[in-house]
């Protein structure tokens, strides 16, 4: 069977990698965790330590086979970000602050309206940048060569 792409992709994501979320539907309802990965092509997220399933892996070259416990993706509609003030799940909105900057704020019935900061983990890359090959001229060397 495999995975299939979502019919309607979310264009503006409000849930980011590193957010503290609560699962609001499913077998782990009420549990909290951190977003480990966002799969935008499927409208799904992986929550660290939640929605655990058994995966049967066949033995192959370089790895052992067996039954492993892995985190399965959840649909993004089944999780909500936790309000940092109240500790309850809430929706996210964007507001312009007095200084003109745009910030994420909590909204909804249980929300306090406080600012939800962007996770610090977003400042780090998941994969390191590839090193520049030496045969490619740097910008200064390019100007000198011309």
TrEMBL record:
**Looking at the UniProt record for this protein, which Gene Ontology cellular component terms does it annotate, in alphabetical order?**
ribonucleoprotein complex; ribosome
Superkingdom to which the source organism belongs: Eukaryota
Where would I find the KOW domain in this sequence?
Answer: 14-41
InterPro entries xref list: KOW (IPR005824), Rib_uL2_dom2 (IPR014722), Ribosomal_uL24 (IPR003256), Ribosomal_uL24_C (IPR057264), Ribosomal_uL24_CS (IPR005825), Ribosomal_uL24_KOW (IPR041988), Translation_prot_SH3-like_sf (IPR008991)
Question: Is Ribonucleoprotein a UniProt keyword of this protein?
Answer: yes
Q: Which UniProt keywords apply?
A: Ribonucleoprotein, Ribosomal protein
In terms of SMART domains, this protein maps to: KOW
Family to which the UniProt record says this protein belongs: Belongs to the universal ribosomal protein uL24 family.
The record's listing under HAMAP family reads: Ribosomal_uL24_B
PANTHER family assigned: MITOCHONDRIAL RIBOSOMAL PROTEIN L24 (PTHR12903)
Q: In its UniProt entry, what is this protein called?
A: KOW domain-containing protein
The species this protein belongs to is: Dendrobium thyrsiflorum (Pinecone-like raceme dendrobium)
